[in-house]
Amino acid sequence: LAIAAMPFFTAFMSEYSNQRVPVVAYCLWLLVTALLNVRLQRAATRAPVVDESVSAETVRRIRLRGWATVGGAVTAVVVALVSPIPFAAQASLMTIPLWRWALMRATREKTA
Length: 112
Hints:
The chain is mostly helical.
């Protein structure tokens, strides 16, 4: 259902891309979608759904991808709320790979 609403928020933001409210709404909806995706990934990587032969490292990587999207969406929401330039929030979504890298690095150090 969250994915089905994305075209609405995308069109709303595209139509009024120079205004704060549509950009904040888009980023918030992306955050909702990312959190639901984390929940789905948890269910999909839990027994009995995932095979026992799948390594714990693979499960960890899958789960961290979802949290990286949450981090990027939170960054975008914060930027959308404080930046006078609405495009800055959209551009801050490019931090998702940085979040993934940081999460992988932080959890690798804990498990090593």
